Amino acid sequence: MTPYKQITEEDLRNLSEITGRERILWQKEINEEYSHDELSAGRHYPELVIKAAAAEEISKILAYANKNNIPVTPRGAGTGLVGAAVAVEQGILLDTTLMNHFIELDEQNLTLTVEPGVLLMELAEYVEKRGYFYPPDPGEKSATIGGNISTNAGGMRAVKFGVTRDYIRGLEIVLADGTIMTLGGKTVKNSSGYALKDLIVGSEGTLAIITKAILRLLPLPKKNVSLLVPFPTLEQAISAVPPIIKSKAIPTAIEFMEKEVIKDAEEYLGRKFPDNQADAYLLLKFDGGTMEEIASYYDSVAHICLEQGATDLLIADTDERAEAIWKARGAFLEAIKSSTTAMDEVDVVVPRSSVNDLVEYIHQLQKQTGTRIKCFGHAGDGNLHAYILKDDMTEEQWEKTLEMTMGKMYQKAHSLKGSVSGEHGIGYAKKEYLKKSMPEEAIQIMKGIKKAFDPLNILNPCKVCQ
C-alpha cells in the first residue's frame, strides 16, 4: 500500500477554501479529546480536524483526500468504546457534530429525516413531544445518530423492537471519491438488488460517510411500567428469561444486573437503589396503550419469575419510581469507570440460554487471575458487557492481563456460539478478535467489500477487518 500523504500547509490552504479556516483545527489547535474515544487507552492525534457543515463540503473534502491519498476518519460525539472514531493513521479527522439538523418529519410515512450529528437524547425529545417513538435505545444518550448507525447500536429495547438497522429506511452517503449517493428511501420494503444501505449500517465509517438518515418511527406508547425482580442467584434470574420470552407478554427490555454493580452505581450517584440485598436482579419494562393492558403483561411475567425463584417483585408504576431504577442502570458504565484507574470492555453476544454460562465463566476467571471484572447486560438478547479493571497494576501487568483475560472471554463466547460484539462494534481495539472468530473466507469477503467502496483505503483505515 502506498504510504499516506502527510498534510502540509498547502493542504491546509486548499481545504480552508472548502470550509473556511475557522472550522479547521491544525496542529497545536487540536484538542486532546480528539485523540481518543470513551475507552481507548492509546492516543492518536489527527493532523487536521475539519468541522463539516454539509454533505457538499464532505464531498469536496473526500475528493481532495482521495486524490492526494490522505486518510479520513469520521467522528461524531466520540462516545464509542472500540477506537472506531480515532485517527490511527493521522490525516483528517472529520467532525460531523455541526450537522445536527432535523430536516423533515413525514407523518404520512412515519419517517424522520435527520443529519448525522443529531444527539440521541435530542432525537428522543423531538419525536416524543410529537407523539412518536424511535425505539433503538443505547445507554449513551449523548451519542450521535450517525455513530449509532455506524455501529448498528442496539440498547435495552432491542429484545422487543430490534436494533438500529431495523429503523433505517434510507441514507445519504458520500463515497471515498466524493460521490454523493442516496440508498433506500421512504418505502417500507425493497427487493431491488443488493442491500447496499444495510452494508453501510454497522460499517463504522470504513465504507462511506453518512450525511443524512431517514429513520422509521412508531406511535409513542401511552403508558409504561418497570418491574425490578430480585433473585437469590444469577442462574435463577437468567433461567427466567426464556419462559418470559416464550410468553405472549414480551417486555420492552430485560436487563440483568448483579449486586456489586448496583453498589457501584449507588456510590457514584449518591443515592440508594430500591433494593440491593439480592445477589442478582432482572429489570423489565413493559409498554402499551393502557395500564390495564400492561398489567396483564406483567402479571404473567411476575408469575414466571416467582416460579423461577424470585424473592420479591417491585413494581415501578410512577415516573419517579421508574426513574430511580433506570437512572442507576444508566450510570453503570460511569460508575465502574470511576472506581478504577483504567478499564476495557468485552461486549460479546451469546444465545440467551448461554448468558449464565458465560457469566459463571467470567466469575471463575476473576478468581483465577485476581483481576476485578464487572458484568451487566441485556438478558433479553444475550448481549453481555464485561469490564476488566486495571486498578493498581503496572502498564506491563495490565497489558499482559488484558490480553490473556480478553482472549479467554472471546474464546468462551465463541464456544457458546456467540459473536465478538453485540452493539459497540469492532473499531481498532477488537479487530484481531474478530479475525480469530470468523472464517478466513468471510474476512476476505469483507475486505473485498471494503476495496469495492474505497479502493485507496482512505476511509477510516486500520478498522474492522483491515
pLDDT averaged over residues: 94
Strand order of the largest sheet: 15-12-14-13-17-18-16
From the alpha-carbon coordinates, what is the Rg to the nearest angstrom?
Answer: 23 Å
Distance separating the two termini: 12 Å
- Name the poorly predicted regions: none
What portion of the residues fall into strands of 2 or more residues? 15-25%
Q: Specify the biggest β-sheet.
A: 7 strands, antiparallel
Q: Tell me how many strands there are.
A: 18
Fraction of helical residues: 25-40%
Query: How would you sum up the global shape?
Result: globular
Number of helices: 16
Strand-pairing-aware structural class: alpha+beta
Describe the structure.
The protein is of the alpha+beta class.
Keywords:
16 helices; alpha+beta; seven-stranded antiparallel sheet; 466 residues; single chain; five-stranded antiparallel sheet; 18 strands
Question: Quick gist of this model?
Answer:
This protein is α+β, with helices and mostly antiparallel strands and 466 residues long.
SSE blueprint:
Layout: H1 9-19, E1 24-26, E2 48-51, H2 55-68, E3 72-75, E4 92-95, E5 102-106, E6 111-114, H3 120-129, E7 132-133, H4 145-151, H5 158-161, E8 168-174, E9 180-184, H6 196-200, E10 209-216, E11 218-219, E12 223-231, H7 234-239, H8 241-246, E13 253-258, H9 259-269, E14 280-288, H10 291-307, E15 314-316, H11 319-330, H12 332-338, E16 343-346, H13 355-369, E17 373-378, E18 383-389, H14 395-415, H15 431-437, H16 440-453
Parallel strand pairs: 2-4, 3-4
Antiparallel strand pairs: 1-2, 5-6, 6-10, 7-11, 8-9, 8-10, 12-14, 12-15, 13-14, 13-17, 16-18, 17-18
